[in-house]
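Forwarding these from the shared drive since the link keeps breaking.
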Amino acid sequence: MTVGIAIAQTPPLPIYIHCGSLFDGKSDKLQKNVVIEIQGDKITAVGASAPKVIDLSNETCLPGLIDTHTHVLLQGDITDTDYDQQLLKQSPQYRAILATVNAKRALEYGFTALRDVETEGAGYADADVKKAINNGVIPGPRMQVSTRALDVTGAYPLLGYAPGVDVPHGVQVVDGADAARKAVREQIMYGADWIKIYSDRSYFVRPDGVLDDIPTFTMDELRAIVDETHRQRRKVASHAMALNGVHNSVEAGVDSIEHGNYIADDDMKTMVSKGIYYVPTIFVGEYVAQGRADAGAPVWLKMLQIHEDTFRRALKAGVKISFGTDAGGFAWTINPAQEFPFMVKWGMTPAQAIQSATVTASQLMGMQDKIGTIEVGKLADIVAVPGDPLVDITALEKVNFVMKGGVVYRKP
């Protein structure tokens, strides 16, 4: 008979970070000269004195940033040609390799968590990228993933090829409520945390200034998707840029509206009452507008003006706004933190913009008990920047310290 002997595990030594200033995510003001104690992967104390091991006394510390709309499997798709190139000439395996590079970049930019809203034709590769990060194989943010996304026949690229040419699609194509339910079950089986749907297409500006569209799914299809997703304790993110896509999504009870260039006032009221989040992705619209206008879609330039008005109305109405950039829609060599100045320019205070990427984003992801603020018991996801982001929001484009789960990935 073998007798097991319990061996006492020596707890890891605490790590101390001395922050010159601290934005903890709970308050909208900075605290001065704060020391954070970290044991293992969690914050164990936030106070005024302790040994100084990591000296960030000239920095402002913040909770790790969260981007709730990314595509780590994309490398930028300003035009249809860019998109076709990636789906037709890059294998899913090669794209997954590039995604590991993108995940590392995101972490080094200061984004310690991402919600990645579909692979754009690369199948379930995002679930494997997430798995590799969680298993410590590659560095990267905490991830929630959406795998393949859903749309209907004839509504999503690749399009325009001869009828006899079988080309891949950037989404899983489904038609009918039963097929939609089956697709939801399949995606969840293979690792989807969220179900992403494309609720509208073909945008145009009406004479009254409203951004109109063609809805994709029927209401029966949308309700089936939302019901099946919620039944399985998952959430639905809806790409909805204009009048009908937003309205139908809100009525069906999705959990977040992605982009939302135009949202009617009544739909904003419903979003507030149902707790539906708005993820505006401002920078990507600015980034792709001219290229798509040059390619024959000038409506994208007008959509920017409409988007600003919508954002300001949503802010005033009390809609919950979560930070999201659509990184991957623009190249990952561009820092996604460029979204912050647009949010401030369009009416947010710097504190509100930061909270959209910390506490609010953590709530959208259902991770508010783990991340989003710097307080005892939370995971030690901490970033730091030189300067004061409450005075100059562009400081968030200069993150020079990144800790995720108590592990330092970047330091001054």
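-- next protein --
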Amino acid sequence: MLAVCALVMVLGVLLQMAMPEGFQLSTSEARSPRTTQMVTEIHSRGPIRLNEIMTANGGVLSDASGEAPDWVEIANVGSGAVNLKGYVLARNAKAGNVFVFPDMIVQPGECALVYADSRLQAETGEELHAPFRLSASGDVLMLFNQADVAIDTVNIPALPDNMVYRREDANGWAVSEEATPGVLNTEENYRALTTVMDGGDVQICEIMSSNSRFAPDENGVCHDYVLLRTASGSGADLSGWYLSDTMQLPRLWRFPEGTSIPAGGTLLVHCSGLNRLEDLMHLHTNFRLSSEGEQVILSNAAGQPVDRVEFDLIKKDSAYVRSGDGSWSIGEPTVP
């Protein structure tokens, strides 16, 4: 096996030197040891390249439906804008179920995310979903340009939950726990996605973690909840924002499109674990709160945490309430 791997690496180097722009689709470029197809890796010399891959998403990133599918990130590392229309993602050179990018522009330094969950969605301006899944035990991914030439290929190793395989430089990949979905793989971007920003206008203002009689949902059932407001009293659009109960997974649950806080008002979110997104007046997260105490994290649409609140044991039907000066105390819920 070591000899085979060494041969694959040598072939990859030779092909890269001979064909820096990639190689044409062919039925002979892939081989199938066990159940995973291996390819001769080609690393993109152009501005568009594979950048980051997650094959065992345990809640690092949620899609618009509140699910946590695996995902692939494409990056533009060049100096000019590129239209991805016609670029193709495939698991091998003979694959029939491929993902073709729609008409979409990626600016220099920008990334495009594609969820790999066997639910094809490839429309301009919409969330992107590939018609295939990726195996956490190891897989292959190939990127083709509009001429069906493979310009970037990678053999993905087995990945533990919530770990990514990401590009470290032009030719090198590494397994990492520092996922940066939607942005380039830099330490600065990782810190931005894991450090709470100061001075955000949207705030967590009330938490109830043992609720039996306040703020019933659309079916008359009372759940734990999180109440949000804006510090300025103005309205706020929360489309694509995130809510979570752990800093390790700050993008655990995503607000659906059209979610907003009215001017001078609040927004209540039921922490029921039911993951209901259809009724914007009665939103339900995919997680519950612990009455023993934990934390609540609010992140903006870019994935940056804007507010984080830690709480301890809260007795039944009492709330953790934020006052006007920013201090917190246990008291009566402010919602009926």
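Residues 79 and 108 are 5 Å apart (CA to CA). The helical segments are 2-18, 187-194.

- D.
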